């Protein structure tokens, strides 16, 4: 029997951002034995982590004080800028020789700008956005895309391997960001398409459960259909990913495409659809609620018995 390789937990970690994604990622580090100091706008988000041995800091500077590595998982480029550049921010507080790991889905140009400032101050940067679904963060199976200098990646790979399953090195800073927003764009396109694909048979009179199973076993299947379609059929829609985040990510990918001169016809149309859904259902509505647009238009809810209210790994 092959023995599991011991993880070097000697690196001290600061963790900023304990939302639906950040909290379970951070918990994996704590469970593995890393020394972690955390902060968030709401200390209640740190409850499980503090019980597990994490230390709390009331501010970013405190998180950075003894850290070798600082990880940020934040909801928007604006918040990332504030955390990095604000008074007592990461760039002013993390020691020379430290590493900043940005796991947020953020603006690529802004990330490059912040990485350049970090480099001037002797701080290395890795972009490490994750993909595969928030529900996989808690089990350590989420995929991590890595951009930055390879020696830096190799230095902190034990940290990334603790949080994620498949760790894919993409290249220099920017490469991971581009691929990350493309994966999200595909997920949102698939979500709209899955809703349409289930609605047409439902209007004809086919049991939505039978339709779900037929699509899952067909050439038209997708990861999104296997997972998020279940949340539509249960009526919960709760994928732990808001409409506001979906619109942010679609905006990021379409901005990159415009700069590169790549026409994203489906991406652009999907962005319009999600903006309309956000306008109707609110910023905090769940991204699968985009299907409600079709349900309203057809005066028919897509529902079937036995489907879960949330996803588990």
TrEMBL record:
Keyword Oxidoreductase (UniProt): yes
GO biological process: L-valine catabolic process
3-hydroxyisobutyrate dehydrogenase-like NAD-binding domain mapped to chain residues: 174-293
Active site: 180
Domain 6-phosphogluconate dehydrogenase NADP-binding: 12-171
UniProt superkingdom: Bacteria
Keyword Lipid biosynthesis: no
Molecular function via GO: 3-hydroxyisobutyrate dehydrogenase activity; NAD binding; NADP binding
Key words, A-Z: NAD, Oxidoreductase
Protein name, entry field: 3-hydroxyisobutyrate dehydrogenase
Species annotation: Hydrogenophaga crassostreae
């Amino acid at each position: 029997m092959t023995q599991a390789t011991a993880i070097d937990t000697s690196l001290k970690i600061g963790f900023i951002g304990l939302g639906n994604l950040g909290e379970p990622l951070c918990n994996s580090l704590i469970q593995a034995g890393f020394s972690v100091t955390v902060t968030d706008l709401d200390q209640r988000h740190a409850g499980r982590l503090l019980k597990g041995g994490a230390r709390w800091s009331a501010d970013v500077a405190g998180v950075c004080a003894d850290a070798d590595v600082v990880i940020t998982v934040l909801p928007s480029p604006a918040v990332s800028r504030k955390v990095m550049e604000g008074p007592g921010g990461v760039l002013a507080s993390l020691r020379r020789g430290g590493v900043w790991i940005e796991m947020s889905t953020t603006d690529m140009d802004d990330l490059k700008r912040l990485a350049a400032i970090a480099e001037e101050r002797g701080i290395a940067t890795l972009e490490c956005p994750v993909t595969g679904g928030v529900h996989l963060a808690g089990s350590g199976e989420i995929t991590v895309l890595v951009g930055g200098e390879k020696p830096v990646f190799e230095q902190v790979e034990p940290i990334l391997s603790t949080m994620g399953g498949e760790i894919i090195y993409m290249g220099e800073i920017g490469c991971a960001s581009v691929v990350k927003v493309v994966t999200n764009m595909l997920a949102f396109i698939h979500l709209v398409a899955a809703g349409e694909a289930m609605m047409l048979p439902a209007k004809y009179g086919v049991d939505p459960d039978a339709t779900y199973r037929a699509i899952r076993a067909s050439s038209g299947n997708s990861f999104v259909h296997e997972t998020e379609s279940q949340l539509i059929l249960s009526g919960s829609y709760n994928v732990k990913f808001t409409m506001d985040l979906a619109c942010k990510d679609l905006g990021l990918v379409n901005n990159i495409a415009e700069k590169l001169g790549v026409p994203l016809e489906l991406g652009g149309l999907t962005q319009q659809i999600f903006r309309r859904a956000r306008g109707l259902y609110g910023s905090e509505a769940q991204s699968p609620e985009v299907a409600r647009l079709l349900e309203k238009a057809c005066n028919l809810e897509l529902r079937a018995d036995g489907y879960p209210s949330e996803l588990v790994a």
